[in-house]
Write a structure and sequence with these properties.
The chain has helices spanning 9-20, 25-32, 36-45, 55-68, 77-88, 93-102, 110-115. By secondary structure, it is mostly helical. The chain folds into two domains: 9-68; 77-115, no CATH class. Helix 2 packs across helix 3 (36-45). The longest helix is centred in the middle third of the chain and has 14 residues, at 55-68. The chain is elongated. Residues 3-46 form the Transposase IS30-like HTH domain.
Length: 116
């Protein structure tokens, strides 16, 4: 499976240039070596308020989304402390995970608890 890569500034400049030349999205995708849906999504997500594509704004929007995206983790300090307390009481990682599942407590997998 091919790894996902975000579009570069150079690719956005090329998209802008080809759009101005009235080239189709599939043509642009072939030129960039990406899936046509990538170009479609890029144009849809990054148009100006007037419905036009501007590569500078598109790059700025992309960077803003990347910065604002916060990575969610279940293994918080509270979860870590909880796991440590249960392990000190001789609970197995499976017991900890099962207890949390039954009591609707957000928990990482028992494999992650073994790492602790």
């Amino acid at each position: 499976m091919k790894k996902y890569n975000q579009l570069t500034m150079q690719q956005r400049i090329l998209i802008s240039f080809l759009i101005k030349k009235n080239k189709s999205q599939s043509y642009i995708a072939k030129e960039l070596g990406v899936n046509p849906s990538t170009v479609c999504r890029e144009l849809k997500r990054n148009k100006t308020s007037k419905g036009r594509y501007n590569y500078n704004l598109a790059q700025s929007f992309s960077e803003d989304r990347r910065v604002s995206k916060k990575r969610y983790t279940k293994f918080t300090d509270d979860v870590k402390a909880f796991v440590e307390r249960k392990i000190k009481k001789c609970w197995s990682p499976e017991q900890i995970t099962d207890y949390c599942r039954v009591n609707s407590i957000p928990m990482v997998s028992h494999e992650r608890n073994y790492i602790k």
